[in-house]
Design goal:
Layout (H helix, E strand, L loop, with lengths): L13 H6 L21 E6 L3 H10 L3 E2 L29 H11 L10 E2 L5 E2 L14 H21 L2 E6 L3 E5 L5 E2 L15 E5 L2 H18 L4 E6 L13 H22 L3 E3 L2 H6 L17 H15 L18 H12 L22
Parallel strand pairs: 1-2, 1-5, 5-9, 9-10
Antiparallel strand pairs: 3-4, 6-7, 6-8
Helix pairs in contact: 3-4, 3-5, 5-6
Amino acid sequence: MANPYASLPDFAFWRRVVASLPPAEVDPVVDVPFRINKHHLVATAGSCFAQHISRTLLSEGFSYLVTETKPATSDASDEGYGVFPARFANVYTVRQLLQLFQRAYGLFEPVDSAWQRPDGAWVDPFRPRIQAVGFPTQDAVIADRDVHLAAVRSMFEQCEVFIFTLGLTECWASTVDGAVFPLAPGVEAAGDDMSAYAFHNCEVGEMTADLLTFIDWLRRLNPGVRIVLTVSPVPLVATYERRHVLVSTTYSKAALRVVADCVCRARDGVAYFPAYEIVTGPQAAGRFYEADLREIRPEGVAHVMATFRRHFLADTCEPLVEFTAAVNSQSNVEAQRQRMQQLEGLICDEEVLDVPPPADGGRT
């Protein structure tokens, strides 16, 4: 019997496509099930790293879908519009994404409606940092959220490609109805009863089921939508598990990577883009991380996005150099691009978790 590995292509062998190549030439994408054209309406969601993809799409003149573009209620501040398709900020966990869909279509009405900050302002528990000043009343939170969820519905119904970056497994949830939040109660604001919330670290099986449910429901509304999954290479800011944050980061990223693989195998029209492998693989030798070993250096982002562009984007414009491209003639795309350039850095709700320890040394 012949050796079954003898006829495999080069990409199947570590020595040929990893060890023997310069780091910049390692490209872990073999093939993709579809490509994105400039006329396709593309929506993104996920962790902080997802914003790099939206910036690339805009820089290349692609049709990045934004359905919530400006304040629509009197108490809404002009913050964060255009960074995401709708002003939902970071969607860190799979369950948060599923519940965003459920809340938008009236399939889930959480008990928690508004949280009050120590300064008296009110915030939306499901996007607590969308504007620095908060809202003056609970009713103002609800009014703005109604507009927001209408924009979320438009996003799901119009998008032709949906890109989701899986970021975290750890979350905080209501013990009353299971609602999950992007930040723990008490970080920015909290409900009336802190005993009504609990820490939860999602497992592979439940995340896979949640993501498959989301995809199936989305395709009932939007049958032709294609989906790209990525895993954020950014480590956790903090862990609530009683173990080293490095161990929690390893679990989180490994579990999310397995979830992405399981879902791609289970559903057609779902692709995986290996941003995580490009940044964290041994060929990178850590060179893509900043001194804090968490933030991604510009050259790392550029390498990831160049690989994404090469395989997933068709009919690209001028080559992307640090997210700057020739001005696109479409005024709406140009306006979004300019707004992105006005923003410094990424919007990352998770960063507020890293606070000075209390005098007693913290949780024991």
